[in-house]
Specification:
34% strand, alpha+beta, 161 residues, 3 helices, globular, single chain, Aminopeptidase
């Protein structure tokens, strides 16, 4: 549990198919469509089986009991997890919610035995780029499904044990 101002932030593991998760992911997709209106812009997938126990996780952040954000990790290989579907509702940005979600994802990644986390975000998401940089992520060459995505920015962080 984290405290930001007068808000209590709690992070809970949730089923990615739950109504709360679905609502947050739809809001994320709407925002991404606004920031990246180009035809062919891809919001990249995350399948429910990628975030089951032992392979990954999907978390929802609650501030004073209300859902305010989400994030997931999925296994890429035995050493590396990937962050997916990071989102904080616009009226809760700048209040530590994203950092709390990121911390939960890093903790779960360590628990699952990963030594490294990678992610993809977009060049039109300065808030996300700043959050990840403050958390110790560094830019890396595009990987996997993002190689052909010209607006993608890929980053990585080595996890301390």
């Amino acid at each position: 549990m984290s405290y930001v101002g007068s808000a209590t932030i709690e992070i809970h593991r949730e089923d990615i198919r739950s109504p709360v998760a679905t609502s947050l992911i739809l809001a994320l997709n709407e925002e991404l469509s606004t920031r990246y209106p180009e035809e062919g812009a891809n919001h990249f997938r995350l399948d429910p089986d990628e975030v089951v126990a032992g392979r990954g996780a999907f978390f929802v952040a609650y501030a004073n009991g209300k859902p305010t954000g989400c994030g997931a990790i999925r296994r890429l290989n035995d050493d590396t997890a990937e962050i997916k579907r990071m989102y904080v509702t616009p009226n809760n940005r700048g209040r530590g919610v994203g950092r709390a979600i990121l911390l939960a994802l890093e903790t779960e990644s360590r628990r699952l035995g990963f030594n490294r986390i990678v992610l993809e975000t977009g060049e039109r998401q300065p808030e996300a780029l700043a959050l990840y940089a403050r958390a110790g992520f560094e830019r890396i060459p595009a990987f996997g499904e993002y190689i052909e995505s010209p607006l993608s920015v890929c980053m990585a962080k080595k996890l301390a044990s």
